[in-house]
Amino acid sequence: MKDNWHGILEILEVKHIRNGQVIWQGSHLHNILHTQGEEFFLKVLFSNVIAKPEYYYFGLDNRATLSLADTLSDLDGEPQIHNYSRQIVNSTTDWTFAVNNGYIQAKSAILTFGAYGDSWGPVRNLFLTMQPQENNPDDGYLISTVYLGNPDIIVVDGDSISMRMAVKLKDCVLTP
C-alpha cells in the first residue's frame, strides 16, 4: 500500500488468461481519482444534482499518460470490436462490504472482459464511469482510472481479463 495514495479504487487482483493459463497478473493497483470523479462523488453525496446511478461501468483503454483533468473524451484505444464491452456493475447489489486492515471496503464481483472472433488491444488502463459505452460514450463522468501495470495487454480470440476491485475509504488522521 502506498502511504500517500489518496484515491478510492484498488484493483485487488487482475489476470490475463489464455488457454486456461494465467499469462500475466497484477494485484493491489491504485487509481487516480479524476477531477470529474471528485465532482461526481460530492454531487451524489451532497446534492440532488446527480442521483446515484443504477449501474457503474468499467472499461479498458490505452492512454499512455493519466491526468487528473482526463474526461471520457480523452479515452484512447477503448476497444470497439470482438465482444468487448464495458462491464456493468449494479450500484446496490454487486458489492460486498467488509473492513480489511482498517479500511472499509466495498468489493466488486469478479469482472471479466473477453475477446471472441479476433483480438483487441493493446490496453493498459481500467476506468470507472457511470456512462454505458453504447449511449454517447463521451458524455458523463470519468470517475477514476487504474494503470494495470502492463502496457502491452493484447487480448486474442478466447482470452479473458478478469479482475476484482475494492472501493476503499479510511479515516484521515492528523498527527501533530
Report on this model:
This protein has 176 residues and is mainly β. It has one domain. Helix content is 7%, strand content 44%. The strands form two sheets. Strands 1, 2, 3, 4, 5, 6, 7, 9, 10 and 12 form a ten-stranded antiparallel sheet that branches. The longest helix has 12 residues, at 35-46. The two termini are 23 Å apart. The model has no long low-confidence stretch (mean pLDDT 86).
N to C succession of SSEs = EEHEEEEEEEEEE
Mean pLDDT: 86
State the shape. globular
Query: Approximately how much beta-strand content do the residues carry?
Result: 35-45%
Rg, nearest Å? 16 Å
Describe this protein with a few key phrases.
10-stranded antiparallel sheet; 12 strands; 7% helix; single chain; 176 residues
Give the secondary structure arrangement, pairings included.
Layout: E1 9-18, E2 21-33, H1 35-46, E3 55-61, E4 87-90, E5 95-100, E6 103-108, E7 111-114, E8 120-123, E9 125-129, E10 142-147, E11 153-155, E12 160-169
Antiparallel strand pairs: 1-2, 1-12, 2-10, 3-4, 3-9, 5-6, 6-12, 7-12, 8-11, 9-10
Characterize this entry briefly:
This protein has 176 residues and is mainly beta.
